[in-house]
Amino acid sequence: MVFAILKINASNELLPNITLGFKLYDSCYSELLSLMGATRILSGKKIGVPNFNCNKDIMPLAIIGDLTSKASVPLARILGLNRYPQVSYASGQALLSDKIQFPSFLRTMYNGDYECFAIAQLVKYFNWTWVGMIYSNNDLGRSGAQLLTREIEKNGGCIAFQETLPISSSMESVYRITGVVKRSRATVIILCCTIENLVSLMEEASFRNITDKVWVGTSGWFITSDFPRRDILTTLNGSFGIAAQNGKIPGFKEFLYNIHPSLFLNDPFMKTFWENAFHCVWPQNDAYNKTSPALLKEDIVWCTGKEKLNNIDVNIYDVYNFKYTYKVHNAVFAVAHALHQMKICVSGKGPFKNGSCADIYNHQPWQLLHYIKKVVFNNTAGDQIYFDENGDVPVYVDILNWQLFPNGSNQYVHVGSFDASSPKGQELNIWLNKILWKGGHNNVPASVCSNPCPNGYRRAALQGQKACCFDCVPCSEGEILNPYDESDCIKCPEDKWPDSRKKECLSKLMQFLSYDEALGFSLACMSILFCLLTIFVLCLFTIKRKTPIVKANNRELSYLLLISLMFGFMCSLLFIGRPNQITCMIRRVIFAVIFSLCVSALLAKTITVIMIFSATNPDSKLKKLVGLRIPIYIVPGCTIIQIILCSVWLTTAAPFAEFNMAAEKGIIVIECNEGSRVLFTCVLGYMGLLATISLSVAFLARKLPDTFNETKFITFSMLVFASVWVTFIPAYLSTKGKQTVAVEIFAILSSSGGFLVCIFFPKCYIILLHPEMNSRQNFKGRNTTTHRVPK
Predict the structure, then answer these.
(1) What is the model's pLDDT at position 225?
(2) What is the β-pairing status of strands 63-64 and 86-88?
(3) Is 65 exposed, middle or buried (0-12, 13-18, 19+ CB in 10 A)?
(4) Average pLDDT for 118-147
């Protein structure tokens, strides 16, 4: 303040030819002394007389102060009655922004509520969800604790405990609070306190060796110099604090280094400061000579006045970091600029009635208050200073980290800032590389009630506990953790599936039996191989068509059966590849028709054998049917019935391709839906009926002479066919996805291969390896031998 007034008085631009003076009052953190000083200022008497002004000519124009909010509040109530300008440099209580209660109060310090916002953002930034809180038992502490609690809980955090620190000395409360702090799992302790009883608390915390906590403080105590002991500094090492923006005051460092008692002869504090700074005693200090005469002859160090202030440790005599000092500087210049505007006011253009101006030498307090409210100026550092409608300045605070070094020195390190004018969510800026934690630069402490749940687990509240204390319960299958609520899991859409961390839903893989994979490729190769083998047999039978073994049992039916088997093998290829509307419609229909043709051809073959042998028996009743050529009508008749069933199926409820979301986890199976299960069952049932009839007829004819008889082979092939399709049913029902299609293809290949091997391989064996047996004489000889009738 002295420096600012000297600068103003030396200025030729600001209040030229006017000299400002000042008076200093020490309120000693006491509301009572602050009020006493206010009544002394207003009344002009050493013993204040309320409502009387006994020395109006020397009344101060404005009051700069007080430092503490508890002292500024009663002072502002009294000064507001007379609209007496008051500009505080440190009082941050939010209540003081109420212009109805405090109409003449302004401040160069920000609204203290924003400290709570900054601390809440700091707690959120480091994911500290379980924090303790200690607050002073005054308006500032209680209102700050309420606001902090609301903001921390709004950000998802919880208050582990809240303890009230009395203003008056109470060691019982100090012991109780330190016990709570030591027992608590909360690593972070927020101190929303003023300085009065905080030293005792920190001394007790140091005595109990509570060094594993991170203390977070408000500007009311954090940058104070009241914690000089190393044990307290060790306890506070690594702690955080909120402080006013560090401002620049050009020339102030030089001013501080040039201070000397000889320049301030009437300053009562100057010699005391000098003695404490250099640990010496002025020779003319009579009080010291009387109380400690023994030290005069032995250990006393005399002050000479030649000591250099720039030799003092900057931690003790800081001439670089100006926080409250900067606010005082701005407050004095705000009053000076207001006076300057009053001085240069032009009559007729003034702000008062009829454009009148106020007399700078004889004005009312409310007139100067008007000018201070409207003041806008750039201070000596170039920063713009102004007051809003609540008498507050723009909010910009520094985040400090208290760092203790091995040599015993300590330092406040600027590690971040909080700018309330920034866009929402971007107010806080932290420089992690500057922070020194108790465990080192990168050892960020955790402060949680329950450890964070692993991926794919949701929070489950514990009954009777706060929201930050929880159990971890895994999300159900097909669910992910709700990104907006960690206590809830949400189900993924049908076409999506959780990733391995259950943090997001990913599109399911499309699955079908394709030619690109080993299974599909192998089945396709088997189908083609069997088809080629069938073609070979057909060619062999065509070449040997005039031989007895080919001509036996209806050569035309053999050709038809081979062609049907060839198409049967080829139809299995329709089951491989991505299903679509066309393939789903034709593959089951073609399969049903071809196998009906095969089974009906076998039935016709069996009936042909029976009729041939019946014709040789004079007593047989079937002899009359030989001429009707019944086997020729069996194949088309039985096949047409299956075609009719398939046509009804396709026209009423045809098969179609669908995406099966539930067949396999995390996979969409593209498969064919049968459409109508009833008609699908009818088609399969009809084919089963034909197979049953064919097996029954072949079984009954198995004991006929075997020269031209195929019934034994047909019986065996039908047993293979029946076995394959009976075992197919449970296998089909127990598999999912592409394995179901593979089972179906395998059943088609197995049953078709059974026909080919059982019926045609024995004949191929004779044709290729024993051609001598493929002769009419051989067959006749066998016939004679086999069918000799006794006389």
Answers:
(1) 59
(2) parallel
(3) buried
(4) 91
Task: Centre a 10 Å sphere on the Cβ of residue 690 and count the other Cβ atoms it contains.
Answer: 23
- Do 210 and 284 belong together in one domain? no
Alpha helices, DSSP H, located in 297-323: none
How far apart CA 654 and CA 680 sit, in angstroms, is 10
Q: How many domains does the chain have?
A: 5
On whether both 596 and 698 belong to a single domain, the answer is: yes
> 50 CB contacts (<8 Å, ≥6 apart)?
39, 42, 43
Residues 598 and 735 in one domain: yes
- Identify whether residues 227 and 261 lie together within a single domain: no
Peptide bond into 66 cis (omega under 30): yes
Same domain for 291 and 234: no
State the pTM of this model: 0.61
The per-residue pLDDT for 739 is 84
The torsion of the CA quartet 299, 303, 304, 308, rounded to 10 degrees, works out to 110
Domain residues for 133?
A: 126-247+396-434
Would you say 649 and 675 are in contact if contact means Cβ atoms under 8 Å apart?
A: yes
Of 288-302, 336-350, 667-681, highest mean pLDDT: 336-350
Same domain flag for 611 and 745? yes
Query: Which residues, 6 or more positions from 7, have their beta carbon under 8 angstroms from its beta carbon?
Result: 251, 380
Q: What is the pLDDT of residues 300-347, one digit of tens each?
A: 788 888 899 988 887 778 888 787 889 999 999 999 999 999 999 999
Task: Please check whether residue 358 is in contact with residue 364, taking contact to mean a CB–CB distance below 8 angstroms.
Answer: yes
